[in-house]
Amino acid sequence: MTFSSCALRGRLAGLALAALLAAPPAVAAELPELKIDLAQTTVSGISSGAFMAVQLGVAHSASVRGVAATAGGPYFCALDDALGGASVDRAIGRCMQGDPAYRAQPIDAAQLARMVAATRGWGAKGEIDPPEGLARQTVWIFHGYNDGVVKKPVSDALRAWYTAFTPAGQVFYKDELPAGHAQISAACADRPDGACNVCAQTGGRFINACAEPGQPGALYDAAGAALQLFYGPLRRTPTAALGGKLESFEQAPFIRGRSGSPVPPARIAMGDTGYVYVPPACRAGEPCRLHIAFHGCQQDAGSLGQAFATTAGFNEWADAGRIVVLYPQARKTLPDPLGRTPANPMGCWDWWGYNDFLHDPGAGTYARKAGVQIAAVWRMAERLAGAGGRSAPAGGAQPALTVVDRSASQAALAWTPVAGATAYVVERSEAGGAPQRRARVEAARVSWVDDGLRPGSAYRYTLRPLLGEVEGMPSAPVELRTAAVPPACDPYFSLSRGAPVTRTGRPTRAVCP
Prior knowledge:
single chain; 20 strands
């Protein structure tokens, strides 16, 4: 069933939803109040969750310091096409581009300029945080070249959108793995219940395991790459040794309608139950940070239970890193004749305006602070941070530099901070040449992205802290080899069939190597 055909099911949906809206909540647990520095918040998402992560990161850019988007597109990608449900098909054609049933519409320069202008305009009106906050964010973007749901030009447009606001040294884009449309996880392989798809697959739980190129037997760890780019080097806890606990909580107390009055979660396509992973140190009252992880379509609790929250890969890095991970939940809904629920048959987060259907005269409320889902999730974040607290990593005398990710043209570096450092200097050498100064990075940052590298080439990096104008002890050098350029690949996926297809819509099992 496509998004635009859902209204035809309204009468049947109304009968089921009347009972749903009247049902008591499934859980009674409360979201805890912890010592969390809200200004250290980061967000991530896959597919519709990637769009949602970008939306939340833009709406609350004064607090959100990092955004990770797997298979997502630029902010306000739907533009006016979903206004009043007028042309959701066109929004899908622009912001996904992979289903032959919806004519692909490239995101051109004029449309990208409108998305940028909307961001600036809403920021000037106070409907989102001032866009200047985006200049402080770190961004990690992922696209697998076997992804036929959200095609590469959409992720390319997301990267292009960020160039209007965020310095290039803070944006990393990985696109050379043969992944399908999925959350790429090194943790799902630790589970005995078949949680992992193979790397190139699209479907199932949409959680895939991909080999780490150049490291035999190792899996690519998307969660670790993103979180370390945001927070600096972290230690991964093996899944079996996790000390924290995944807790369920009732989402209803955080749900409000457009008027601000409480409404049942189903009315804005959110689930009754959400999840939060709390490391032992955070539960014991130590200062911590918050990461918000948005699932994708068909990954909500009603579809997968706790599978996304337990296998996406974030908990393993959060446990020793004192990072609380919030897993808010959307839900599948069908419209009823009284307009009590939106059309969201796949349990997606709202990136095209289904919660604003026939209500928003200007389009885009869903992507601003007033968007009912954004507001609900941010209330959850504020509750978690209710006990206050500041989390600052301890500084040493010498930085520990590490490579957290690489692509064919970029290297993502992260380091432990140095006490008293006023800035950091990154030096690079190649092929036995002398080190060359590449960047001066402000003291508050713990990562930097080098761009314009040659594919399949070796590089060596050193980090030098500055204490005023005096150089401190340099880091030990780190070496890396950039990845190969990904092959030309043109995958497609039918939303109605839930299966890969050719450009002409024929079923296929072919994947790019």
